[in-house]
Amino acid sequence: MTAYQTVDGTEAQKREAKFYEVGQSVTFLRRYGRYAKGEFCEVAGANERGVVLVKEGRRSTLSYRYVDRIAVAAPSAMEIARSDRLQLKFNGKSVEGTPLASGELVTVPRPAQKRCDHRRR
Question: What is the pLDDT of residues 54-102, one digit of tens each?
Fold first, then answer.
């Protein structure tokens, strides 16, 4: 599983291109233009104008003036197994759309099992 660890940085650090790395991700803490609160985008780079983000294959630049609206995270691989307990570190929604709260403890469910028809024909 890919987990995303927040990259701690001050507002001043977040206004510098060298703070960002290709492959990091951002989550919007507040709405900004076409980005909704909670939306997740990949960082494609940074330049003198701002942070270059990719959403649905389209690139756009978020001005450094608005970096207070994002949280930056770096991906890391994490091995999990059935019944592991995880503590969520960010508000969001599950794949099914259920609200998830920061600090909530969740249990990894067992994987969906394939159904077999054991009846004889």
Answer: 999 999 999 999 999 999 999 989 898 999 998 888 787 777 888 888 8
String of DSSP letters for 94-118: -TT--EE-TT-EEEPPPPPPPP---
Q: Whose structure tokens read 């969906």?
A: 112
pTM above 0.90, yes or no: no
Contact at 8 Å (CB) between 2 and 25? no
Whether the Cβ atoms of residue 102 and residue 89 lie closer than 8 Å to each other: yes
Question: What residue type is 109 in one-letter code?
Answer: P
Where would I find the beta strands (DSSP E) of 1-95? 2-6, 25-28, 40-46, 50-55, 58-63, 70-77, 85-87, 92-93
